[in-house]
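Q: My labmate handed me this sequence with no annotations at all. I'd like to see what the chain might look like in three dimensions before we decide whether it's worth expressing. Could you predict it?
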Amino acid sequence: MPGQRVRGPAYRLYGRRLRRNLEQGPLPKHIAMILDGNRRWARQVGLESAALGHRAGAAKIVEFAEWVADLRIPVITLYLLSTDNLTGRTSDELDALFGIIADLATALSERWRVQHVGTATGLPETLMRALAAAEERSRDRTGLHINLAVGYGGRNEIAHAMRSIVATHQAEGGSLDDLADLLTPETIGQHLYTSGQPDPDLVIRTSGEQRLSDFMLWQSAHSEFYFVEALGPDLREVDFLRALRAYAQRHRRYGT
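A: Here is what I predict for the chain of 256 residues:
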């Protein structure tokens, strides 16, 4: 049942066994997470407000970050609000989401380094201030690095990278004739929001949906994918450990 948590002895024993299996590795260096299904979860447990589902999802994200940090995985990217969401949700739901994301960014930045990846377009000033404050507060933290994808779209990110390349080239006095030589995968990667970070080795999505939804389109070209049936707030640590076990058992081909 949605919202039900199993934490008995058998669960704990199974979790310990999964952890032992992971000791041989390899573990991903970067995990991208789409914690999907918050609204569906709220309906299934009888809540009238989608915002309560989003708040439950935010609580699960803090828990997820703890699991990741405990395994010393260095980077995670969390898909919190897409550019499509900004036009596909009601104003009441968006207002609630903005506040939930601001609170989440603050909570995460108290323990880990936080970075906003996305655009400010369509986001309220209050949320942008909260994201900027979270970045500043956590700038010198070591350990887990958390990218918060807010106002994010993969196609927009690629377009932003291309504009950045052109602007930089123009500022340096470059000509149109030699611009084409700069448009390499390596240069484009240097102008993405996640510049300097490893691409995600593993992309996890909850709620049984099997699509990227415009998330990290460039960076996930060689990622492994793992889909969980559980709705976002129902995600358990053993679900996460199973994803890591599946990742460790795969032979990564990197497009070959």
